[in-house]
Design goal:
Layout lengths: L1 H16 L5 H37 L5 H24 L2 H17 L11 E5 L2 E5 L13 E14 L21 E11 L7 E14 L5 E4 L6 E4 L4 E21 L4 E4 L2 E4 L6 E22 L6 E6 L7 E11 L2 E8 L14 E13 L1
Parallel strand pairs: 2-15
Antiparallel strand pairs: 1-2, 3-4, 3-15, 4-5, 5-8, 6-7, 8-11, 9-10, 11-12, 11-13, 13-14, 14-15
Helix pairs in contact: 1-2, 2-3, 2-4
Length: 364
Amino acid sequence: MKTKIALVSAFMAFSYSFAQETPNMNASMKNYSKMIDSIVVSEKIKMNKELDGVDHDFKQNKITSDEKQKLRADIASKYEETINEKIDAHKTEFEEFTRQAVKDAVLKPLDSLHKDKNQIVFGLGGVSIRMDEDKNKPADYLRTWQYVVALVGTSYTTKNEPFAFLNNNSEFKNTVFNSAMYMVRYEGQLGSFTSPFFYRLGLGYRWDQSKAKYGKTFTQENLTLDTKEFTKGNLKDTHINNHYLFIPVDFKFVLNPKYIEHNGTKYLNNRVSQFSIVAGVYGGVRIASNIYNRYSNDYSKKIVERESINHGVNDIIFGGKLGIGYAGFNVYVQKDFTPTFNNNANLRSKYGLQIGIELLNASF
């Protein structure tokens, strides 16, 4: 009996070890394991009923203690033999499964399609997450949904110097990272299964934040957005926030494509790390803007003022994007072709220029 139980335990461990490599065979092995369990459970139920009968006769003084022990030993021996015979009857089936599993493990190549479907990778560029449990063929990896979180540095330039990032002549304080972007996007392949071209359609939220410099703050007096000296107390923090509904359209080109063959068809392998360049356009619809001031004075250590902006900011922006990426690490530059601020803003630098790093990239 112990030998058969050890055999069943070894079989279950063996079948589990091949669960990822031979999924179809694993299903058959699970059915075989259930059949063995069914035999053992069924026979043990019958055995327990007979043992209960022996115990009942002993309590009724129909048999002696020695007779009880002998009957229990005979019953256990009988059912051990029965279980062994029934398992032996299916021994050939188990051996065939074992031979086929060993053959697949030795002769078949590593199934890279089903290996490590779900991944979390931490790197210098942030976190990359892949949730690919429902993907069964290489073509499934060529179309994905992605959730992206990016840390962004926002600067504003003049029309004549469109790429003067961190311009010292601007009214805005130079800050490397001061904004963010959150987006859901769909990525699909253009052309054949081996094409290195992809397109992306997204919908997200863009938050631009900038500070006035030289101890100044933003104001919208006389229907004009401007900056001025702060005179209410000791200014601790001040910034302007613009919030947009963000709609990007990107095109991606894989620079060093890798390929995989599946069922006689060649595919671009979108599961391996590859270099890519991205170019695209985007549009934004402003949903809110506000001025934030935090300061202290003789009466309070913390006073916070928030004021909605009603003048000087355009409702629509449009621009272009250029970026480069490797695996889940992506860096990009975005340039607004239209000004963030209109003629009701007394500001020299009105055109947004952003540098972003995708800190989180989750693919589904």
